[in-house]
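debug: dumping io for the single-chain case to check the tokenizer round-trip. Nothing else runs in this session.
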Amino acid sequence: MERVKKQKAKLREWAESILVAILLALFIRSFIVQAFKIPSGSMTPTLLVGDHILVCKFIYGIKIPFINKTIVEFKDPQREDVIVFIYPVDRSKDFIKRVIGLPGDKIEIRNKKVFINDKPYPDPHAYFTDERIYPGDVFPRDNFGPVIVPPHKYFVLGDNRDSSHDSRFWGFVDRDDILGKAFIIYWSWERPFYNIRWSRIGKIIH
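debug: decoded output
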């Protein structure tokens, strides 16, 4: 009988430990940091397919889990922040892009060149692979706008400008849909998946 009691006590301790670990993991994932994997080349060369990144969840504020309603705001996203957000067209997906336009900004793209408030934007992270330039009425990739970013919204672009599905095509990102800021690559490999990119591990995302 004493042996059975000890076994039950051990089982209870294990169950409690597992429950605490699960709750702690959920808390960290919901409020502190979350891991994401890069599935496409839209942020090349900043982020590559196969990069695994960590995203700071609390840098812009504290949200209510599952409904993504911000209850406490710490700071607003800044221009050039790399953010993860809920894709407006399909809210079951998360996207990652770079903030280019802030609320109230006038955004225009002329022959691949970004203008903010009628001034050329240095655009240090832009990457191009296609020399062709399309007129805006045919394809908004290279000529777009001008548009004014509405309040509580952000205009985002992928660094790989010729191969990114971003605000040029589907519009703005709502402040409440921003999940956090990407800050580090913690793992990276390319196909075949045993080819580890050691030089990328630990790289800070700018």
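debug: round-trip ok. The mean pLDDT is 86.
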